[in-house]
Amino acid sequence: MHAWICSNDGGPEALRWTEQATPEPGPGQARVAIRAASLNFPDLLITQGKYQHKPPYPFVPGAEFAGVVEAVGDGVTRLKVGDRVIALAGTGGFATHALVDEARLLPLPAGMPFEHGAAFAFTYGTSHHALIDRGALQAGETVLVLGAGGGVGTAAVQIAKAAGARVIAGAAGADKVAFCREIGADETIDYASEDLRERLKALTGGRGPDVVYDPVGGDLAEAAFRSIAWRGRYLVVGFAAGGIPTLPLNLPLLKGASLVGVFWGEFVRREPAASARGLAQLAGWYAEGRVRPLIDSQLPLAELGEAFRRLAARQVRGKLVMVQPG
């Protein structure tokens, strides 16, 4: 097998494509022949030693992927050789093969191609947990999605629409704003050229959004929170802008608003039954055509460096997927 090995916190440039012995699965594990792996912003952070989870070196990055079960270890009961699966492994995806605990493997829904499977659970799971579980989003409410042109952002737009909400998509640049309209956003804000607070006032009649979905952080956070509606819910999803904002705590008081943390990976670990219910609803929405992973482009696994470059430069609309011929 071949794998991209991370041996230090030097970022994507320090990754090395190496040949290794193909491992045999241990008890409770399956070996997956990887067909597609998606690139997420945490994959960039983890190679830089900046992510919440810091695996010991050396490791193979790549949080989510899809492929075919090639071998199973003792005690594996839900899977058999030949099964098509989605892996929520946290690491291991940027390789030709990976060992994955059975509990972290899900059946690939019927009719879903590998590239969609690799781009589905992480971003859609995160956004579903944020909006439906943590944000208690109701039909008829207004949602502001920041970073709406990216991976979790596009998922959030689709999920909010599936839940019956009105969606205001915020993104930087005319191209991304137009893309958000294409995927179903009711209104858009180009916060690279428009004042976020003034535009939100105009779009909501001064009331503000009921829910703010924020995977960006940075300078946008305080402006968005100051605009939130009474009893609004501000969902802290991530910090793609790089800076972790500090908010005056009088803002939640004045708006009767909630500041809500979203950590999907820990949710999956601590509440597996609730996580499974959310993913089942998403699979149903996928079958109905209400949500669909938006693939910016597919690149060969050997071109992972170029994929990281595009991600870091904010040149991705939706998801980048690395593919491996079967």
Walk me through the structure.
This protein is of the alpha/beta class. The protein folds into two domains: 2-120 and 293-323, Quinone Oxidoreductase, Chain A, domain 1 (Alpha-Beta Complex), CATH 3.90.180.10; 123-265, Rossmann fold, CATH 3.40.50.720. Helices cover 31% and strands 24% of the residues. It contains eleven helices and 15 strands. The strands form three sheets. Strands 3, 4, 5, 6, 7, 14 and 15 form a seven-stranded mixed β-sheet that branches. Strands 10-9-8-11-12-13 form a six-stranded parallel β-sheet, with helices on both faces. It has a two-stranded antiparallel ribbon with strand order 1-2. Helix 7 links the parallel strand 11 and strand 12. The mean pLDDT is 95.
Task: Label this structure with key terms.
326 residues, alpha/beta, Quinone Oxidoreductase, Chain A, domain 1, Rossmann fold, 2 domains, seven-stranded mixed sheet, six-stranded parallel sheet, 11 helices
The CATH class of the largest domain is identified as: Alpha Beta
Distance between the termini: 13 Å
CATH architecture of the largest domain: Alpha-Beta Complex
Radius of gyration (Å):
20 Å
Structural class by sheet pairing and helices: alpha/beta
Proportion in β-strands:
15-25%
Topology:
Elements: E1 2-5, E2 16-19, E3 29-39, H1 41-47, E4 64-72, E5 84-88, E6 97-101, E7 105-107, H2 114-118, H3 121-134, E8 142-145, H4 151-162, E9 166-171, H5 174-182, E10 187-190, H6 196-204, E11 211-214, H7 220-226, E12 233-236, H8 250-255, E13 258-261, H9 264-270, H10 272-287, E14 295-300, H11 304-312, E15 319-323
Parallel strand pairs: 8-9, 8-11, 9-10, 11-12, 12-13, 14-15
Antiparallel strand pairs: 1-2, 3-4, 3-6, 3-15, 4-5, 5-7
Helix pairs in contact: 3-4, 3-10, 9-10
Domain Enoyl reductase (ER): 10-322
Pfam families: ADH_N (PF08240), ADH_zinc_N (PF00107)
GO molecular function: oxidoreductase activity; zinc ion binding
